Amino acid sequence: MPKAARKKAKDPEGRMPLTEHLRELRNRLAISVLAVVVITIVALFFAKSIMNFITEPLPQCIELEDADPAGNRCATLTQAGLTSPFATYIKVSLMVGFVLASPVWLYQAWGFMAPGLHKNEKKYTRAVVAVGVPLFLFGAYFAYWLLPRAIPVLLSFSADGAENLVSVDDILDITVRMAVAFGFAFELPLVLVMLNFGGVVSGKRMLGWWRGMVVGIAIFAAAITPTDLMSMIALQVPVTGLYFLATGIALLNDYRRRRNDPEAQLGDDEASDLDLTPSSIDGPEDIGRPGRGGYDDAT
Questions:
Q1: Which of 31, 122, 175, 270 is the most buried (most CB within 10 A)?
Q2: What does the record list as coiled-coil region(s) (predicted)?
Q3: Which residues of 134-158 are buried (b: 16+ CB within 10 A; e: fewer)?
Q4: What sign does the dihedral 43-46-48-54 (CA atoms) show?
Q5: How far lies 242's CA from each of 112, 177, 246, 247, 255, in Å?
Q6: Dihedral sign, Cα of residue 78, residue 82, residue 83, residue 85
Q7: Per-domain residue ranges for the chain?
Q8: What is the rounded distance in angstroms from the CA atom of residue 261 to the CA atom of residue 153?
Q9: pTM strictly above 0.90
């Protein structure tokens, strides 16, 4: 009986054939999807309580005459169709599964990229997950905190005498959209720090982006938040602050690298020191052939 083939040793530089990359991607995607599915199944048993928690920011009208008691608008929560409640259960559970499984899929995403890093850069894997998960969850919670302040502003545009009918799907859609957008927006500093620690971009260059980053964050905040100005500012200010915090960390990391190895981190617009000491020049070399007076042809 032939002996079983020995398992190939891993390349210390993280190099592997394309088929190995695809196989690893498939395995990590399978683990991430499995984690989301498991948490989604568990969340199905608590879907109604979660649904009540999500729709709580909506100011609901108890009676028709309460629609405009003191200039503040309210709405009536509705679900249209026989299959709408069940479909909402599935959507709520999937949202919870995606958010609560974020430690797993963030770790798998970073693990897929880590083999391409140097050995001294792989030690940040756990730190990335440990920081990235709280940032994502905090961004999602911040979106939920903002909704009770944004929904009344949206309802204030209603016509006088009109009754607002808001479906559960509408509340769920805006909650999911804002939670995911805020969660990924709060990941911006982590991505920048990862790029800096990986040697892709320097802190000096990140600082040079500050005008474009501030404008870009403002445009993103205006596009993802409801129509009121306060919601836009509430998102722009913390994300901008996190950007400058990440830039400061990158600058400190660059300073540490330069102190340890002055030539390790040269910017794209920086040149290494050149040795300009003049050297002696040898005399002319005789390339002639014998019998032709030093010339290399018959001239």
A1: 175
A2: none
A3: ebbbebbebbbebbeebbbebbeee
A4: negative
A5: 26, 21, 6, 9, 20
A6: positive
A7: 18-61+73-260
A8: 55
A9: no
Query: DSSP for 147-216?
Result: HHHHHHHHHTTSPTTPPEEEEHHHHHHHHHHHHHHHHHHTTHHHHHHHHHHTTSS-HHHHHHTHHHHHHH
Q: Tell me the residue type at 113.
A: M
Low-confidence ranges of the chain (pLDDT < 70): 1-17, 62-72, 113-126, 226-228, 261-299
Question: Nearest Cα to 24, choosing from 109, 101, 129?
Answer: 109
Give alpha helix (H) positions in the chain. Answer: 18-44, 47-55, 84-100, 102-113, 119-122, 125-155, 168-185, 188-197, 203-208, 210-224, 229-260
Return the half-sphere exposure (C-beta side, CA atoms, 13 A cut-off) of residue 17. Answer: 4
The pLDDT value recorded for residue 232 is 80
Length of the chain in terms of residues written: 299
